[in-house]
């Protein structure tokens, strides 16, 4: 793991966007694995800006998003589909048919997860996977569990995740209870992984991820076994890593 400590959210976002930009420039046909949540918003802002300044070209880029709430309509402003359009896709020249997010409206969990997994592994898989981290160490929506999930699957969200994500909804009852997510195995197949974390509320999860034992109880800890992981985190998020 390569760990970069930066001073704040802005610096984290700039560095993360630079790494994504380098990938896009080096291989304009890259497949990017993308994440949602408040962590990558600043990163996407830089990418949009650099596209508008003529530095980046997304015309051949493909994207595969990590996850989506189950039972949520695309038009819902809290869907990850909506998030991606708002923060990235609507502002750059990416082709809509090259962007992929699990279909949260599909009720048939087995079919959708099988198809999404197949789609990701088609071609060369994900070249660079962007990740945030949950306060309980989750990546994508892989919640702490007894085993690591290999492939895309349907998860029941942890109560702590519902609590953490309710800030985006009108009320806690509106947060979907389930989600479709890439599995830990899916994420680990990515060529390169970029994990971002900002703020003190991520400090314990990040400490366990970097310094703790590799265990499905801290899903992100599996990243210790990946050959090419870059962590970019601010001082607050790294405050427990000495
Ligand atoms: C969400 C997403 C994750 C994200 C995490 C942290 O539930 N499924 O992909 O990394 O929680 O979110 P935030 O960046 O808002 O702290």
Report on this model:
There is one protein chain. The protein has 242 residues and is of the alpha/beta class. The chain has one domain (2-234): 3-Layer(aba) Sandwich (Rossmann fold). Helices cover 30% and strands 17% of the residues. It has helices at 9-26, 41-52, 80-87, 109-121, 159-165, 184-188, 203-211; strands at residues 2-6, 31-34, 62-65, 67-69, 99-100, 128-131, 153-156, 178-181, 192-197, 229-234. The strands form two sheets. The chain has a seven-stranded parallel β-sheet, with helices on one face. Strands 4-8-7 form a three-stranded antiparallel β-sheet, with helices on one face. The longest helix has 18 residues, at 9-26. It is globular. The mean pLDDT is 96. 2-amino-2-deoxy-6-O-phosphono-alpha-D-glucopyranose binds at residues 35-39, 66-67, 132-134, 140-141, 161, 165.
Brief overview:
The protein is built from 7 helices and 10 strands. The protein is of the alpha/beta class and 242 residues long.
Helix content: 25-40%
Low-pLDDT sequence parts: none
Q: Helical element count?
A: 7
The end-to-end distance, rounded to whole angstroms, is 15 Å
In this entry the ligands are: 2-amino-2-deoxy-6-O-phosphono-alpha-D-glucopyranose
Total strand count, please?
A: 10
- Going across the biggest sheet, name each strand in turn: 1-10-9-6-2-3-5
Overall structural class, as computed from helix and strand content, comes to alpha/beta
Query: Strand percentage, roughly?
Result: 15-25%
Task: Give a short account of the largest sheet.
Answer: 7 strands, parallel
What is the class in the CATH system?
A: Alpha Beta
Q: Overall 3D geometry? A: globular
Average pLDDT figure: 96
Order of SSEs: EHEHEEHEHEEHEHEHE
* CATH-derived architecture: 3-Layer(aba) Sandwich
Seen as an oligomer or otherwise, the chain set is single chain
Determine Rg (CA atoms, Å): 17 Å
Might you state the CATH topology name? Answer: Rossmann fold
């Amino acid at each position: 793991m390569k760990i970069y400590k930066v001073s704040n959210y802005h610096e984290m976002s700039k560095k993360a966007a630079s790494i994504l930009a380098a990938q896009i420039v080096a291989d304009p046909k890259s497949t990017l694995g993308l994440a949602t949540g408040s962590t990558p918003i600043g990163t996407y802002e830089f990418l949009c800006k650099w596209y508008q300044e003529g530095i980046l070209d997304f015309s051949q880029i493909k994207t595969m998003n990590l996850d989506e709430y189950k039972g949520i309509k695309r038009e819902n402003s809290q869907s990850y589909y909506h998030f991606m359009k708002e923060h990235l896709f609507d502002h750059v020249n990416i082709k809509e048919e090259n962007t992929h997010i699990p279909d949260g409206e599909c009720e048939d969990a087995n079919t959708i997860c099988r198809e999404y997994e197949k789609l990701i592994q088609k071609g060369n898989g994900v070249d660079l996977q962007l990740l945030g981290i949950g306060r309980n160490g989750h990546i994508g929506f892989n919640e702490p569990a007894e085993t690591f999930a290999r492939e895309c699957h349907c998860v029941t969200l942890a109560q702590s995740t519902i609590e953490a994500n309710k800030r985006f909804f009108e009320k806690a009852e509106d947060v979907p209870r389930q989600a479709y997510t890439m599995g830990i195995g899916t994420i680990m197949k990515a060529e390169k992984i970029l994990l971002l974390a900002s703020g003190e509320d991520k400090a314990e999860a990040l400490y366990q991820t970097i310094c703790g034992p590799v265990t499905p109880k801290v899903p992100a800890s599996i990243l210790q076994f990946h050959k090419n992981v870059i962590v970019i985190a601010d001082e607050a998020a790294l405050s427990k890593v000495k």
